[in-house]
Amino acid sequence: MKIGLAAAGSGGHVYPALAVADMLVALGLGTDDVIFFGGDRMEAKVIPAAGYPFVQLDVHGMRRSFSSDNFKLPLKIWRAARVIVDEIESVGISAMIVFGGYVSGPAGLAARRSKIPLIIHEANAVPGIANRILAPLAETVYVAFDPATKKLKNAIVVGNPLRAPFEQFDREAIRPTAREHYGIDPRAVVLGVFGGSLGVFSKDAVTIEMASNEERGYQILHLTGVPQYAQIARRATAVDGWCVVPFEPEMERCYAAGDVVISRSGSM
């Protein structure tokens, strides 16, 4: 049996998909039996690094501001769906699981055309457009939060899939190596600030203000997101006790290193 997984855009989509993939492998599938579909963003690096086949598609989400790219989007979705259909037929994919983001649309359409079961997982409390459109076509819809059922009727609330390191998370056991990894004083009080893989400008602005406080009695572990990293890292070089990281694939280290966390209310 081979299973297709479609996840793209941000860690809130990609890492739940990877958690499901790892569980499928634990249940007996080979890593080559779990085929991922995505675009050219973080998934293009993270998924192959995890050892899974990855089919990269030429597709993107709708631009929020006016852009001529939006006029090309229907054709890109159609072409991407065609690529996925070809992959479904050539390798014998038996079911498709989509996790939101811009790749869900073509993956869901491809599953429909190929007459294989479509399964949706929605990680956010407010479902995205693609998953809302696809829901009537799905065999089963799973959601992480109760409020999502207002938009996705008959969905089953299951929470968000988490990777194996969190299942047996022992903060005290990994705390020393986590702090050593970030170069943080093992005796310091540490504030963790996380904003998701893409970062959040307002959160970063507040963190810069806190880090600049000369009377600050704690260290800061700041995950900026890749887009903001270079600019914030330059400011952090002149400030003691401010560790800036663009992205952390092993989030258990961040939770172990910190004492208090400020985080955005994203999918995870």
Description:
- By secondary structure, the protein is an alpha/beta fold.
- It folds into two domains: 2-164, Glycogen Phosphorylase B (Rossmann fold, 3-Layer(aba) Sandwich), CATH 3.40.50; 169-263, Rossmann fold, CATH 3.40.50.2000.
- The chain is built from ten helices and eleven strands.
- It has helices spanning 11-26, 43-49, 69-91, 104-114, 129-134, 164-167, 171-182, 201-211, 226-236, 251-257, and strands at residues 2-6, 34-38, 54-56, 93-98, 118-122, 140-143, 156-157, 190-194, 219-223, 242-245, 260-263.
- Helix 3 (69-91) packs across helix 4 (104-114) and helix 7 crosses helix 10.
- It is elongated.
- It starts with a strand and ends in a 5-residue tail after the last strand.
**Any idea how many domains?**
2
Main β-sheet: number of strands, strand sense, barrel status? 7 strands, parallel
Number of strands: 11
What are the low-pLDDT stretches, counting only 5+ consecutive residues below 50?
none
CATH hierarchy, class of the largest domain: Alpha Beta
Structural class comes to alpha/beta
Secondary structure layout plus pairing:
Layout: E1 2-6, H1 11-26, E2 34-38, H2 43-49, E3 54-56, H3 69-91, E4 93-98, H4 104-114, E5 118-122, H5 129-134, E6 140-143, E7 156-157, H6 164-167, H7 171-182, E8 190-194, H8 201-211, E9 219-223, H9 226-236, E10 242-245, H10 251-257, E11 260-263
Parallel strand pairs: 1-2, 1-4, 2-3, 4-5, 5-6, 6-7, 8-9, 8-11, 9-10
